[in-house]
Known about the structure:
It is a single chain. By secondary structure, this protein is mainly beta. The chain has two domains: 1-30; 46-284, Sandwich (Jelly Rolls), CATH 2.60.120. The protein is built from one helix and 20 strands. The termini are far apart. The model is unreliable at 1-37 (pLDDT under 50).
Amino acid sequence: MRGPGAPRTRRALLLLVAAWAASAACAHKPGATGHTKQGVWAVGPDPVTIGLWHMDETIGMGVTEAGPFRLGGTAGVDTRTGYGRLGRAREFTRSVNSFVFVPYDPVFESGAALTVEAWIDPLDYGYFEDTPIAARWTPEAFQSSWLLSLVGRNHPPADQISPAEHAGLVRPGIGAGRVMFAFQPVEAGSPRSFFSSRAVDRERWTHVAATYDGQIVRIYLNGQLDSQYASLGQIRPSEAPLVVGNSIDPRTLTRFSGDLRVGSNTDPTAYYAFVGLIDELRISNRARPEFPYARGP
């Protein structure tokens, strides 16, 4: 015979089990592997991950990749590590030698489907057209593929003139701090560029993401859809490496002094250097439909 407290105890146990199940389900959302004390989900590799860089290194110039293909990179000499949105982050400065370089790998070719996402904390907007967050975009002919960037002020110092490498990407009147996603289509013609409707705040962590499924480009801020554009086609394949936090010509890189840097015979002006922190960069070969872990601070 059950005592009078049995039904109440059973209900309490059922509620406890239900709470545990809900928690486990959340912890296994696509790409989510855990959360911080602040309730921010940490992304992890999944079957559609091309590359995942947590930027958690505390020393050295090596940048570890946590995805299935181990696409490790090397940081330029003018980057440093700092406190990130989740653990550590890579801090980028206004220098031509501030970047993370990941050599080309065939797995980068995603065709008609792509997602690029990261947590960013920009300390300032660039003086020139834009400052890339992550890109496979080079001045070498027919080697540009895609680019995720922040629009700059387009007000360079009086003694500097833009090389205009990115001038055709940013349309007149696009305000500084807007997220820009651009890609070069397989079909002949000019690159296509798309912009968020809102600017990203300075000195504040924001999750930014761009997705493309061969038909629609979508841009997300803190997990919320900000803007979308119809655009049929495929992203042009190339042998461009992945460069984080800058736009450089990979042909100018050297290890002459031991560290990876731009050669001394190259213009030292940091036209497109991102200034701030980048954390949890992930590239996927699908257009992710949601970002449940991307909540703002």
